Amino acid sequence: MFQGSFDPFTIGHESIVRRALPLFDEIVIAVVSNIAKQPFMSLENRMKFIASIFKNEPRVRVVASAGLTVDVAHQVGACCLLRGVRMIQDFENEMHMAEINRTLGDIETVLLYTLPEFSHISSSIVRELYRYGRDVSDMLPAGAPLDLLGK
Description:
two-stranded parallel ribbon, 5 helices, alpha/beta, Rossmann fold, 5 strands
């Protein structure tokens, strides 16, 4: 299971999923609704956005996620958690979370490192650039429905 707010889902996220597909029978992308944050995109639009990217990949399923990661993973029948790492700070945080998730839910975490050409891309950078009217299409997956951004 690949869980995150994905607000929005970037080419870095897409790369992690596509590179993980040969490793798993199915990848469940669990989209988190974080009530502590004001979302850039609605939960529904984030789910539509991601589903449209993988519309031709039957091994990718998109679900809404609420609650603890380990609980959601068990609900969807996930064997492990999939996470992407862009930089050393991400690794330290992911290592800590992997230990917590293993302790709480007896589930392993698989880390894939972001390809170097995507390491500078984050959802927060995409949101910031978009708000200032910049073209962010090269940071989003090809064919992504840009009309869903910021709504």
